[in-house]
Amino acid sequence: MRDTAGGPRVLLRRLRELMADALDPQKRLDKIVREIAQNMVAEVCSLYVLRADSMLELYATEGLNPDAVHLAQLRLGQGLVGTIAASARPLNLSDAQKHPAFAYLPETGEEIYHSFLGVPVLRAGRTLGVLVVQNRTMRHYREDEVEALETVAMVIAEMIATGDLARLTRPGIELDLSRPVSMTGLPFNEGVGLGHVVLHEPRIVVTALFNEDSDEELVRLETALDSLRLSIDDMLSRRDVAFEGEHRAVLEAYRMFANDRGWVRRLQEAINNGLTAEAAVEKVQSDMRARMMHMTDPYLRERMSDFDDLANRLLRQLMGRGPDALAEILPKDAIIVARSMGAAELLDYPRQKLRGLVLEEGAPTSHIVIVARAIGLPTVGQVKGAVSMSENGDAIIVDGEDGQVHLRPQADVEEAYAEKVRFRARRQKLYQELRDRPTETRDSVPVDLMMNAGLAVDLPQLAQSGAAGIGLFRTELQFMVAAAFPRVEAQERLYSEVLDAADGKPVTFRTIDIGGDKVLPYFKGAQHEENPALGWRAIRLTLDRPGLLRTQIRALLKAAGGRELRMMLPMVTEVSEVRQAREIIDREVRHLSRFGYLLPTRLKLGAMIEVPALLWQLEELMQAVDFVSVGSNDLFQFVTATDRGNTRIADRFDPLSVPFLRILRQIVRAGDQYGTPVTLCGELAGRPISAMALLGIGFRSISMAPAAIGPVKAMLCELPLSDLSVVMDEALANHSASTDIRALLRDFAQKHNIAL
Asked: Which EC numbers characterise this protein's activity in its record (predicted)?
C-alpha cells in the first residue's frame, strides 16, 4: 500500500487538507473517519476519546449509528476498545464477537460486523483514545494496514493535544489530557511550590507531519542517524572517567539502538507511509514508550529509557537545533519537571523564576538535590511518569514536605495549598523576627547555628538566615559545575567572595571532596569502582594527587590574606592523613611567604568524622586538629552499612536510634575532654526534632541548610536544655533496643510547648 488509490500516502494527504480547513471540530472528525473508512475499504471507522473519568466516549463514526456519537461509552478496560486503551496495544481480530473482552453496545448497531482492527491513539506514550475500523466479512487486517491506522492515530493524537476537541465535551466532562493527576514521590527538600510546568528537556513538538517526497525524507533520516552514530562513537572513544562504568554502559546501549535494524526499518516504513522523518521518529518513539510503560523488568525499562533519550537526540538532529533555551521564556512561577538533570543545568535557570523541582529519578544526596537544597527549592524525587504525564504550561503543585505532586490540580486542592503557602509565609515571618535574637536556649545555653553552602548563590542567605557563620563550605561544587578544573585564580576569587560575604563570621572550607558519586567529567584519573563510596575519593584522592590539593590550598591561603582561615579535610580514615595534609599546607605557606604574599592571620585545620575507624582514634585525632566536624550522612551510612542513595533501604534505619546517638555523644565527650570544638553538618542538624536530640547529647554547634535555621532556632529558644539532657542521658543508658527516641522527643516537646 504505497501510492495506490487506497494507500496511506493518499489518506495522509487528504487528512492534511482536512486539518487545514476551517471546519467545526465535529464536522472535521466526521470527515476524517469517513476518509479513513474509504481509504481502508472499511464499512466502519470509529474514534473513541478517553475522558478524565476513565470513560471512552464515541466521538465520531462512519458506519455505526450516528445517534450513538457522544452517548456510547466504555470504561477503561471494558470491551475491545477499553482493552486497547488500557494495554496501549492494537487488536486485530477476524471475528471480534468471539473475543472474551467483546462488549455489546446495542445503541451502536455494530453486531453485524465481524472483523475488527483497533489501535491506541498515543502521544508521548499516553493513551488519549482508540481508533477502530470494522468489516462484516471475517478477515485479518494486513500488517501494512495496521501500520497505516497507527500512523493516522498519531495525527489524531495531535488534534486531541491541541485542545480542539475540548469544545465538543459536555458540561462537567473533561478529556483525559486535562485530567488532574496526583503522584507520590520522595520528599528531597522542604517547601511548597505552586506554579506551571517547564519540562527540562521539552518534548519536541513536530508540526510538519506529512512529507512531500519520501526519498528526500529517507535521506534526511539517514544523514541524522549517521551524525548521531558518529557522536556516540566519539564519546565512546574517550577514556575519561565520565564514560566508564555505568556511563559507558548507557552509551553502549545508545550505540546498540542507533544501529538497530528493526528500529531503522520501522522509521523507514513510517516515512514510506507518508510521514516526515521527524514525525516518523515521534510515532515509533511513542509506540515504544507505550510498551515500556507496561514492562515489569526494571532492566528492560531502564534500557527503554535509554532508547527514549536517544530518540529525542535524533529528533533534535533532524530539526537542526539543541534543547530549547527555555530559560529565556520561563514563566515567573516555573516548576522544572525532569527525568534527571545535572547540578550545572539547574543553575542555568534564573533562580528568581523557579518555584520547585520534580524528578523522576534522583536520591536525597545526589548532586542536583544538594544544589536544589542550597537554593531553597522545594524538591520531590522518584516521581515515576512525571515527564510523560506533564505538558509545558500545566498547573502543578510540589509539596516537598510529604512528597506529593499535584498536576493540573482541582480548584479546592489548589486553594488548600495556597493556604499552606500563606501559613508557611507567616512562619517564615516569625523566623525572620527571631533572626536578631540571641541564639540560646530557654535556660540561657548559647548554641551556634551555622549554615552549609557551596556556591556564590548561597552567600546572600548568610545574612538573611541569621546564621552564626558557614559551618561547611563545599568547595567541590565549584568543580562540579565547571567544564574543566577551575584555575587557581577562579578558586581564589570565589573564596574571597565567600569571606567578604561572611564579614568576619567564621567560614569552614572543606577541601575538595570528589570521587565516589561526585564524578567530574573532565577528571581523567579515576577508574570504575565496584563500591565508589568506599573507594578513591576525598582526602585519599587529593593526597595521591597532591598537585590538586596544593592548588586549592594556595588559592585558600591567598584569599584569606589578613583574615582567619579554617580548612577541613573530608573522609579522614587515619590521623596520619591529617599530618600529611598539614605538611602540604606548611609547604604552601612557606612558598607564599617567600614571595611576599599576605598570609592568613590564623590558620585552623580540622577533620571530618565520617569514617567509623576514627572512633577508635579519637584521642589522637582531637590532639592533631584544631576542630572536628561530624559528617552525619556518611558516618551513619558507614556505621549501618546503608547505601544512602538506595531508595529501598534509605528509610530502613533511623539516625535517631540509640546506637547511633551513643556514637555521636562519644565524639562530643572526646572533644570536651581535649578542648577540641565539635560541630555537626548533615541532614540531622536541619530538622527541629533531630536538632533537639543533638543538643540533648551535648552538641553546641550544628550546621544546616539556610532554610532550616529559622525552624531550628524557633525550637531552640523554647528548649529547657538541662531538662532535655537528663532525659537523653537516661534514654541512652537504657539497654532496651526498643527505646523510641523520636516518640520521647515529641512527648518532651509537647510537655514544654515546643513547636516541631
From this structure: 2.7.3.9
Q: Which pairs with CB-CB distance under 8 Å and at least 24 residues apart come from 323-329?
A: 323/201, 323/202, 324/202, 326/198, 326/202
The answer to whether 15 and 28 have CB atoms below 8 angstroms apart is no
Mean pLDDT, range 154-162, rounded to an integer: 79
Strand partners, 628: 607, 678
C-alpha distances in angstroms, 212 versus 10, 149, 208, 267, 307?
A: 11, 20, 10, 16, 28
**CA–CA distance, 348 with 350 (Å, rounded to integer):** 7
Q: Which three cell numbers stand for residue 338?
A: 525532569
- Number of Cβ within a 10 Å radius of residue 671: 23
Stated as kind and residue range, the H or E segment containing 179 is: none
Tell which phi-psi region holds residue 160, choosing left (phi > 0), alpha (psi between -120 and 50) or beta.
Answer: alpha
pTM of the entire predicted model = 0.60
Edge-first strand listing for the sheet containing 354-359: 181-184, 404-407, 395-399, 192-199, 334-338, 354-359, 379-381, 186-189
Cα 379 to its chain centre, rounded Å, is 8
Enter the C-alpha cell of residue 274.
507518508
What is the rounded CA–CA span in Å between residue 22 and residue 708? 57
What pLDDT band is residue 1 in, cutting at 50, 70 and 90? very low
> What are the pLDDT digits (tens) for 82-125?
999 988 899 999 999 999 999 888 888 888 899 999 999 987 66
Tell me the C-alpha distance between 59 and 28, whole Å.
11
Q: pLDDT tens digits for 313-328?
A: 788 778 765 444 445 6
- H helices within 562-657, ranges in order? 575-594, 618-624, 632-640
**Cα–Cα distance, 147 to 723 (Å, whole number):** 75
- Strand partners of residue 119: 131
Mean pLDDT in residue range 229-235: 72
At residue 4 the predicted structure's pLDDT band, cuts being 50, 70 and 90, is very low
Q: CA 525 to CA 244: how far, in whole Å?
A: 11
Cell of 416: 488548600
Q: Contact at 8 Å (CB) between 607 and 573?
A: no
The sheet carrying 115-123 orders its strands as 73-75, 55-62, 44-50, 126-135, 115-123, 91-93
Q: Which residues pair with 66 in a beta bridge?
A: none
- The grid coordinates listed for 444 are 540561657
How does strand 186-189 pair with strand 181-184? unpaired
Q: What is the DSSP letter of 85?
A: H
Q: Is 402 left (phi over 0), alpha (psi -120 to 50) or beta?
A: alpha
Q: Which own/partner contact pairs does 526-534 have at CB distance under 8 Å and 24+ positions apart?
A: 526/241, 526/244, 527/241, 527/244, 528/244, 528/245, 529/245, 533/634, 533/637, 533/643
Residue, of 364 and 463, whose pLDDT is higher: 463
Question: Is the pLDDT at 66 greater than 50, yes or no?
Answer: yes
- Phi/psi for 640 (5° steps) reads -100, 5
